[in-house]
Amino acid sequence: MIQAQTELSSQRLPANIPPLPVAIRYYDDFSDTYGQVKYPDHSDQWSISYDGKQVTLDSRSFDVVISPFIKSWCANQLAIRAPRTTEYYLYGLKQVSLQQFTAIITATPQEVHSAWRIISADQLQYYALEALKSIFSFMCRFSVGPWLPEWLDYVSMLPLPKVDKYAGVRTGDVFLSFEEEAAIIRHIDEVCHEIAA
Fold it and tell me: Does residue 106 share a domain with residue 41?
C-alpha cells in the first residue's frame, strides 16, 4: 500500500519545486537576532534556536519522495514566519498521511475545494489543517504546479474548524486555585525578604 502511494506521488508531484537556498535566515524575536541554517540541502535535520532554546526541524520522518517538497516549504516558512510557527506547522504535517499529503499537493485550483472537504472530514487536528493550508499558500507564491499567486485569496478562504478560544475561561481551567495563588504570594514574599536581607 505504501509502495503504491509512493509510486503515485513520485509520478504526480509538481516538478517545479523551488530549490533550497545555500543558507536560510530567520529572525528570533526573543533574542532579537537573526539565525541561519547553512547548507540545508546537506541535512534532513536543521538546528534552529528561538525563545532561548535549541530545537531541530527534522524532515526524516517524511517519505523520501515528498521530502524535497517538505524541505523547500519549510525553508520558506522559516524565512517568512516565526521559527516557533514553522516548528508547529512541521509537527502538524507529521500528522498527515502520505495519501492525504499527495491528494493536497497534486490538487489543481479547480479540485482544491472538494479535496479540502475530504481532508477536513478526516478529523485532522487544527494545527495539521493550518499547516496544509500553508502548503497551498507556498505553492501559490512560487507558482508550483498549476498554482499561481492570484489563487492566494481563494486559498485563504479554505475553512478551518471552529475553535472556541474561550473554552478554558468558560470551564474555569485558566484560573488559579486559592492554593496556587497562595503559593505564588508566599514565593514573592520570600524573595522580597531575601532581597531586603
Answer: yes
Residues 143 and 190 in one domain: no
Spatial neighbors of 188 by CB under 8 A, at least 6 apart, are none
All cell numbers assigned to 74 = 519549510
Is residue 24 within a helix (H) or strand (E), and if so which, with residue range?
strand 23-28
> Do 11 and 107 have their domain in common?
yes
Task: Report how far Cα 145 is from the mean position of its chain's Cα atoms.
Answer: 21
Task: Indicate if the pLDDT at residue 13 is higher than 60.
Answer: yes
What's phi and psi for 27, nearest 5 deg?
-110, 125
Q: Report the domain count for the chain.
A: 2
Closest to 142 measured CA to CA, from 105, 183, 89, 114: 105
Assigned domain for 173 exists: yes
Chain segment 88-110, per-residue pLDDT in tens: 999 999 999 888 888 888 889 99
Q: Which residues of 81-93 are buried (b: 16+ CB within 10 A; e: fewer)?
A: bbbbbbbebbebb
162 Cβ neighbours under 8 A, 6+ residues apart: none
Give me 159's grid cell. 475553512
Beta-strand relationship, 45-50 and 53-58: antiparallel
Residue 40 lies in a domain: yes
